[in-house]
Amino acid sequence: MAAEPDTPLDLFADGDAQPRRETLGPGAVLLRSFASARAGALLAALEEVVQRSPFRFMTTPGGYRMSVAMTNCGAAGWVTDRSGYRYDALDPLSAACWPLMPPVFRELAAQAAGAAGFAEFEPDACLINRYQPGARLSLHQDKDERDLSSPIVSVSLGLPAVFLFGAHRRAERPRRVPLAHGDVVVWGGPARLRFHGVQPLKEGRHPDLGACRVNLSFRKAR
Ligand code: MD6
Ligand code: FE
């Protein structure tokens, strides 16, 4: 231990270098390391999901190939193609249902939502984003879900990234929020439609995931 609990420089009671919980605004909270203890179980479950529904690069309605590779699990999966953005019960690659949401995914999402003040979150969709160096997500709002009263729970795994957390207008300068392996962001209520994005991923190597970042985002889509 670097310091006794009562030394003046020990600013945080749990001894972490940073507070574990940070409010990003009304309805939005960052739970640092919330998923760390279960990261191994999450990655093992992810392995099974991607065996059935592999990562793929989807196309925007405007015809651009996204730099982030995506897949889904749960009853509904988020997809984009030339005809638009939507949730679909079927994986367009296999024409079969998306893989079931692994229990460890569901439980983590419900616990994180509860810790952020959103009780009884029951996600039916988990969008899985894979970023390789250079991949980015431009500022957007998540508004394809029918139920905007439920929050979104976002779990970061692998390489660190800078999350851009904006306001309700695209033009407002977003805050830069560094996210690391195991960090969880929850937002809902008054924050549900805030613009957000991810800066281009920097080169690097994570001991478990190699040269990539994976983000799990849980929603109630239907
Ligand atoms: C990402 N996340 O972190 C991208 N959307 O990979 C999102 O677009 C996102 O993290 C809604 C809520 C949480 C998110
Ligand atoms: Fe989003």
CATH superfamily: Alpha-ketoglutarate-dependent dioxygenase AlkB-like
Q: Give helix and strand order, one letter per element, not per position.
A: EEHEEEHEEEEEEEE
What is the strand arrangement across the widest sheet? 1-2-11-8-13-6-3
CATH fold descriptor: Jelly Rolls
> How does the overall form come out from the CA principal axes?
globular
Q: What's the mean pLDDT score?
A: 93
Low-pLDDT ranges:
1-8
**Overall radius of gyration:** 17 Å
| Helix share bin | 10-25%
What is the architecture at the second tier of CATH?
A: Sandwich
- Overall tally of domains: 1
Hetero ligands? N-[(3-hydroxypyridin-2-yl)carbonyl]glycine, fe (iii) ion
Question: Alpha-carbon distance between the termini?
Answer: 48 Å
Question: In short, what is this structure?
Answer:
12% of the residues lie in helices and 30% in strands.
Overview of the structural elements:
The chain is α+β, with helices and mostly antiparallel strands. It has a single domain, classed as Jelly Rolls (Sandwich), CATH 2.60.120. Helix content is 12%, strand content 30%. It is built from two helices and 13 strands, in the order ββαβββαββββββββ. Strands 1-2-11-8-13-6-3 form a seven-stranded antiparallel beta sheet, with helices on one face. A four-stranded antiparallel beta sheet has the order 7-12-9-10, with no helix packed on it. Strand 4 and strand 5 form a beta hairpin. It is globular, with a radius of gyration of 17 Å. The termini are far apart. Fe (iii) ion binds next to loops. N-[(3-hydroxypyridin-2-yl)carbonyl]glycine binds next to strand 8, strand 12 and strand 13.
